[in-house]
Each structure stands twice: as structure tokens, then as C-alpha cells.
């Protein structure tokens, strides 16, 4: 019951984030689809975590170099996702309004990804590893 409610809430927030991204691209006033390249950052964001989870089997350790490196790469990916639309707006490839919508979508999507790992990454009965 609790996992289903969490999954519904996460899917709703993901849909809201993608709506912001699509509005930043598809509104006739903005009219360019360059911000859709941010989707690449959404897909590669969890990859360092998955690799670190596989590489470090000692889950009782408080910290490991592999996990810290995964946090570093994930932080770089997230910062790049926020910087990309700002650079596009700065070189006037997109308008600043579209940049704002994409940044709002980034915030919602990355919080959704974080929420997914907080809710389903505990390793208990509702772990994402069972999906």
C-alpha cells in the first residue's frame, strides 16, 4: 500500500517535470527543441550509482571510495544538466523563458530520481532491485 502510493506520487512528479521540459520546447513562442538534450542527463544520472552498487558488496561500510566516486560523477551530471540550458540561453540558442521552464523541469525530475532511490533503494521488501 505504501509502496504503491509512493510509486504513484513519483510518477506524477515525473510527469510534471517532463511537462515543464516539453513546455520549454514546444510552446510556439520558444519554438526550438534543443533543450530536449537534457533527457540524456536524466538517463545517465543513475548509472554511477548502479555501478557503485554492483562494485561494492560491503553494504555495512559507512563510506567507500567507489561510492564517493559515484557521488562525484552523479553531482557532475546533475550540475551539467542545470548548466546546459543556461549555456543555450546565454548563446541565444533558446530564450530565457524556455531556460526557466527547463530548469524547473530539471529540479522536479532530479528530485523525483532522488525520491525513487530513497523510497525503493533501501534493500527491504520494496526494493527497486525486485522490479
UniProtKB/TrEMBL annotation:
Transmembrane segments: 33-51, 71-88, 94-120
Location(s), subcellular: Endosome membrane; Golgi apparatus membrane
Bilayer topology term: Multi-pass membrane protein
Cellular component annotations (GO), alphabetically ordered: endosome membrane; Golgi membrane
Keywords in alphabetical order: Endosome, Golgi apparatus, Membrane, Transmembrane, Transmembrane helix
One example of a Gene Ontology biological process annotation: late endosome to vacuole transport via multivesicular body sorting pathway
InterPro entries (UniProt xref): Vps55/LEPROT
Family: Belongs to the OB-RGRP/VPS55 family.
Entry protein name: Leptin receptor gene-related protein
Organism: Cepphus grylle
Amino acid at each position: 500500500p505504501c509502496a504503491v502510493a509512493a510509486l504513484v506520487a513519483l510518477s506524477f512528479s515525473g510527469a510534471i517535470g517532463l511537462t515543464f521540459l516539453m513546455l520549454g520546447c514546444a510552446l510556439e513562442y520558444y519554438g526550438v527543441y534543443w533543450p530536449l538534450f537534457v533527457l540524456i542527463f536524466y538517463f545517465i544520472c543513475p548509472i554511477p550509482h548502479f555501478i557503485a552498487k554492483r562494485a561494492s558488496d560491503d553494504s555495512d561500510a559507512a563510506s567507500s571510495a567507489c561510492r564517493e566516486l559515484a557521488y562525484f560523477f552523479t553531482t557532475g551530471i546533475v550540475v551539467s544538466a542545470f548548466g546546459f540550458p543556461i549555456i543555450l540561453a546565454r548563446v541565444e540558442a533558446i530564450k530565457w523563458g524556455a531556460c526557466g521552464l527547463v530548469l524547473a523541469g530539471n529540479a522536479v525530475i532530479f528530485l523525483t530520481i532522488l525520491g525513487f532511490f530513497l523510497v525503493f533503494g533501501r534493500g527491504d521488501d520494496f526494493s527497486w532491485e525486485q522490479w
